[in-house]
Amino acid sequence: MRQSRWWSTMDKRDVIVCRCSDLTLADLEALFNTGYKTFEELKRIARIGMGPCQGTTCGPIVRSAIHRRFKEPIERIPLHRARPFNIGIKLGAIKEAADDES
Amino acid sequence: MNPKEARIVIIGGGISGASIAYHLAEAGCTDVTLIEKGYLASGATGRCGAGVRQQWGTRLNCQMAKESVAFFERAEEILGYDGDVEFKQAGYLIVGTNEEEDARFAENVALQQALDIPAEHLTPKQAKRLIPHLNTEGVTSATFCPTDGHLNPFLMTDAFYHAASERGVRFKTYTKVTDVRVKDGRVAGVETTAGDYPADVIINAAGGHAQLVGQMAGVEIPVQSQNREILVTEPIEKIQDPMVISFSRNIYCQQTPHGSFIMGRGDNRPSGYTTESSWQFLEAMAQTAVTLLPPLKDLRVVRQWGGLYNLSPDRQPIIGGTEVEGFYIACGYSGHGFMLAPVTGRLMKEIVLGEKPSLPLEELSLERFDGEDTEAYEQSVV
């Protein structure tokens, strides 16, 4: 099987998968070994995708790692569930807007 | 038949199902299978506010909560869990804003103290000492219990999962129960998207979908599900220790050990199974939170979601058997299934194994709703 060189030669403890929650490829593979194998499960156990980027960075990386590990066709591996918001908005700003309407 | 050799199927892989699985296996049950349509904690457990409080208005709720707290305090040790379930006991501050609430608080605190729960009735000034950024305008009194707190729902479920697995429980995730087979008035098994499972005992711990599972067995459970919304902010340095809640203002709000603030409220919604997010919730939540806790105005909301409350007519859980022999239910927690999970597991173990119940089970039985309408008597619910 072909693998890109950086992936196969770098120490897995140095490959950052989720930079918001500081999770490495080694951490991810340890979680695979305990039975977790979807983004949604990994998110809840390791905070992947819960940081400021809300999964936009780690989503495709985790998908690729799941593909490599479980040999599932990549198009059949769902990305994470996208939830509001796209960017963080201050509670004060939301309150102000709501107060203005009423 | 020795009940410990019964083929037991648990429907639902939330905290209740996981705790029941652990307690049955720990007691020596040898054939336990848990079936979950998604992943563990994918329903209400993983969507909840994660609070654990002992400040209740009924004796039974106080007793169940107190016992659950004692379990959470030693959860890692009891379950042999390598990780940390992040149980943080920094108290619950319950804020009241009218005389009626003050009177109820006084009654509740007397009940709690009689049960050795260390709750106190506070003046607004005393409350502000606990949370300096609390806006006490309009606040008439508060109650505080220092041993209340919150813990991580995913990790707590994971801890039960590992302990139950080690004791032989089989977990079937991504497997949906499509029917419950009943023969001559007793359960025969379940049909699922991954084949049939014969069973002598079936335990319905399906949370927001419990009434649908009940219907599969021909059992009407008088509960309804409602979407309750919640949001989380970016993490910041620790500024708030206790969970703050208010029934009259309609809010609960905690700062997690991670640093983010989680908050929710309970707007009355039509019953159903949707868990969508709405701007109406967002606006009302921002207004309530910023008014009561002004410095939160500078925090950015990063995510919002919804989950299902499974509401019983009296806002107390339903734990026990049904008219179908071998079909048991643990549902109707009305928003408090997470915090009561240790007791849920123990009580269900006692029921299934025919042991002497450690709490008055008739108050939790399905039969209590027979006949006349029951009035909600647990008032202390957000």
Q: Largest interface, counted with CB-CB under 8 A?
A: A-B, 24 and 32 residues
Which bin fits the share of residues in helices of chain A? 40-55%
What is the residue-mean pLDDT of chain A, rounded to a whole number?
Answer: 88
Number of strands of chain B: 19
What is the H-and-E element order of chain A? Answer: HEEHHHEH
pLDDT average of chain B, as an integer? 96
Largest sheet of chain A: 2 strands, antiparallel
Radius of gyration of chain B: 20 Å
> How many H/I helical runs of chain B?
9
Low-confidence stretches of chain A: none
Instruction: Name the helicity range of chain B.
Output: 25-40%
Determine the structural class of chain B based on helices, strands and strand pairing.
Answer: alpha/beta
**Quaternary organisation of the protein chains:** heterodimer
Strand content of chain A: 5-15%
Q: Report the β-strand fraction of chain B as a percent range.
A: 15-25%
Distance between the first and last residues' Cα of chain B = 44 Å
Rg of chain A over CA atoms, rounded to whole Å, is 17 Å
Q: How are strands sequenced across the largest beta sheet of chain B?
A: 5-6-4-14-15-16-13-17
State the main characteristics:
heterodimer, A: 102 residues, mainly alpha, two-stranded antiparallel ribbon, 45% helix, B: 382 residues, alpha/beta, 19 strands, globular
Topology:
The complex is a heterodimer of chains A (102) and B (382).
Chain A: H1 5-9, E1 16-18, E2 23-24, H2 25-33, H3 39-46, H4 58-70, E3 89-90, H5 91-101
Antiparallel strand pairs in A: 1-2
Chain B: E1 8-11, H1 15-26, E2 32-35, E3 51-52, H2 59-73, H3 75-79, E4 92-96, H4 99-114, E5 120-122, H5 124-130, E6 141-145, E7 149-150, H6 153-166, E8 170-172, E9 177-183, E10 186-192, E11 195-198, E12 201-204, H7 210-216, E13 224-233, E14 243-246, E15 251-255, E16 261-264, H8 279-292, E17 300-311, E18 318-321, E19 327-331, H9 341-352
Helix pairs in contact in B: 1-6, 1-9
